[in-house]
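note to self: dont lose this again. the chain is below, predicted strucutre after it. 473 aa total, dont forget to put it in the shared folder this time
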Amino acid sequence: MTINCKQLHAAKLMLVTLLLGSLCTVSGADRPNIVVFVADDLGWSDLGYSGSSFYESPNIDALSKRGMVFTNAYSNGPNCAPSRASLMSGMYTPRHGIYTVASSARGKSKDRRLIPIENTTVLRDNIATLPEQLKTLGYRTGHFGKWHLGADPTTQGMDVNIAGREWGSPSGGGYRSPFAFPNLKSDKPGEYLTDRISESACDFIRNSKDKPFFVYLSHYSVHTPIQPKKQYIEHFKNKPGDRGHNNSGYAAMIQSLDESMGRIIKTLADESLSENTIVIFVSDNGGHGGVTTNRPLRGAKGMLYEGGIRVPMIVHWPGKTTAGTKFDQPVIGVDLLPTILEMANAKLGVNSNDQPRDGISLVNVLDGSAERIVNRPVFWHFPAYLQGTGGGASRDPFRTRPAGAVRLGDWKLIEFFETGHVELYNLVDDIAESKNVATDNPDRTALLLEKLQSWRESVNAPVPRELNPDYEG
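---
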């Protein structure tokens, strides 16, 4: 029997409906609009509200004053694709198999002790994504910018796709038109990509008043190449650096990213949508070590140290979040899917098609009905190699060798699969992860290692064991 595309998508829609379980009988007009604004490679300390006096972000800073800032927010991976796949699926990386970008065997074979676990680059079609689940609630869904999970986000629940492909960085002309992205045209030679994507998202908002909408504004910026607007560079060239923040081109790109947030906020206000629209701001991983520094955090994009996985995160939920509040417990990317679905008035019942939800809803802390969430561990699994030093002085050819990590409360443990070496840090006493205290805390080390290994068994996380015959170490 031959099944055509229409039958396949109809079958998937039925599964998505079953996954969501029974829904609250809330009219579409009563559901909030939702904007998820994702920056690419923006470091935890690269904004004004997080302490930088060099980088400037007045619109994002203003959002932090209106909403709740999550000071211990994490991405599910140290680089782009795995964190985005977990955000869209609500699942940890071993469940969808996207561990890294491109091949897991990065760098030179002679430097790799182990054969890494094979990586997946496309989010499986049978995974019920966040936009697919929102569509069953009556939402119109739009994707603007970087997708990085396959060739076409409209096959994964997006009604509209502007500039989304499998690409991880700007292609063709880079950040200036003419663009080589799908459905993204410009009549202005040299128009800036961040501006064009933002305007497309604003047009979608203006044209979506008849039903609740979900905007996934997923910028390519501030990912390399560093191609800012030239008129912004001079201002930062004449400005003193701060904590290693001194890259004028990167600062100019942050300015354009921040202006994008300003456009979204203004459009919502102009269309009288501000009071019924939730805005979530987050980065997909830590800052690129060759471009910025993540001080006081250790490491950078591509690492399981804090600089690679701790990210800025703000949620503004009008009428619910108390302005200017902070939340200091660890939260992670898989928490966004259940949080957004509950915000959209979905009843989070049993998953009828057995797709796991690995995160927890943060609605109770956002609306003030709870001050804390359960003290649960959060996990990372990176059974791959990623070349490069991340901007540091290390002579190791890899930023990250195969490893896993867990954080529980104030404590974080990293396990390296090549040697079994473990590192333990108390992040309250040592946010810079400067002193490995594993040998001083054997009971704590054993507890966290057991939790990490038990979690891997529970999610069927593959660990590389096979020795690489090319290894020359």
